[in-house]
Amino acid sequence: MGPWRCLLLLPLLAAALRAQQQQFMEYVERRLTLLEERISQWHDQSSRYSTELRDFKNQVLGMLETAEKEREAMRSEAESAAVRVDRLEREVDYLETQNPAPPCVEVDEMLMEKQVATAKQRKNEKYTKLTDCSDTIASVRAMKILKRFGSTSGLWTKDAAGNSEKIYVFDGTANDTVYVFPRMREFTLFSATRKAARIKLPYPWVGTGHLVYNGHLYYIRQQGPFQVIKFNLANKTVVDSSVFPAEEQIPVFGLSPFTYIEVAADEEGLWAIYATKEDEKNICLAKLDPTSLDIEQMWDTPCPRENAEGAFVVCGALHVVYNTRLPSRSRVQCVFDVSGTLAPEDASLVYFPKRYGSHSSMKYSPRERQIYAWDDGYQIIYRMEMKKKLEV
């Protein structure tokens, strides 16, 4: 092809290229337009979703605020109901104290005189042991402070003879209500008395010398002469009562003037620790029949009342705990064995760890070989190290 022909084709090629370029630009513009439309749709949808999410968030916040207000209102109502229940319980307790319906327990003066005469005849006679228990306390092996509960003076204990794990609490030195916790754990955790069951006694108790023994509560009632009341804890009734056959009783412990009779339990059974005006310097001991409350035997002990703060019986031996007017370290300083197996000079001088003040009660558990003590409002357990009497 000649040169002149090439020159003729150049305009045609340029026109074709321009046409293709125009088509390509139109295509690109169409694609960009579609992308812009999709971006615009996405933006609109995103804005709508953001608005809906914000509205939902505000709705949830409003619901949470309403729920919080309702929760606070319910809590206030519950607290108000608890206050009303407590007030109602106090009013019921007050009405019961103002209108008591106690069972008939009368004092037979002829029977009382007969009991006193019989007890005097048995006084200081030789005691025949019921068991072969020959242990005595060697030392305090461990001390555990559980909590602080109630008044500075009081009593807490388990059943000394049964297998119940219930904790019985006598708060103070004069009242008519006993608190009962189902187990040690509940007593340790709960500080409010409304968590405990309450036993309303038909007669008010006095002092801290009471005892729970084999499903019965033996407690001291003062109305003229002192009475030992036997109360069945299962059916909440008085089973028996007995006027303690001792004339002109005085506080048994010099440092605990609120206790006139201390009912104690050991491996041999039930005991009563007391003092009389006839021999006001020393402490007396009596063996009780747990069924009839009769006095089986009585002893005058050489243990002085002065500076005594408590006492308990272990294997037929009375252990008297002493302190000082300004409370210091308590110690067992006098032991009287009714069987004569353990001489006073052979007994160990047992010291209790220094704590807060002085004991208002000390209850020995023959089943657990430990002492439940109340010290200035603190509830303490002493675990005892035992030895044979002949080894001491």
TrEMBL record:
Gene Ontology CC terms: extracellular space
Signal peptide from the UniProt entry: 1-19
Coiled-coil region: 57-98
Domain Olfactomedin-like: start-end pairs: 132-388
GO BP field: signal transduction
Keyword annotations of the record: Coiled coil, Developmental protein, Disulfide bond, Glycoprotein, Secreted, Signal
Keyword Protein biosynthesis recorded: no
InterPro entries: Olfac-like_dom (IPR003112), Olfactomedin-like_domain (IPR050605)
Family from the record: Belongs to the OLFML3 family.
Protein's recorded name: Olfactomedin-like protein 3
Record organism: Aptenodytes patagonicus
High-level lineage: Eukaryota, Metazoa, Chordata, Craniata, Vertebrata
